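Deliverable D4.2, example record:
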Amino acid sequence: MIDKEVERRRRIRLSVAAYAYEVHDDSVMSDGEFDKECLLVDISQTTGNRKLDNFFKNYFDPSTGSWIHKHPEKKNKLEQIYQRVYKHAGWGS
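Output generated by the structure prediction step:
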């Protein structure tokens, strides 16, 4: 089993990447990197956030990023992270 902080960060990165692609048509990581990281997600690992742990258990699919449309923090936190990290820092397209 991996460290919960590693898993938490992986899920955040993947969520923001899926959000950027699905909502803003912006690839902030390559398809290969996204696919590789998705295969490393361990949905049995708890991260300390029960709502998001349940979301990943019920909706995460490593073969696509469309699960992001059901993400419980899509409208607020993911948009904020995307804007702060990728758009304002000049990353992404």
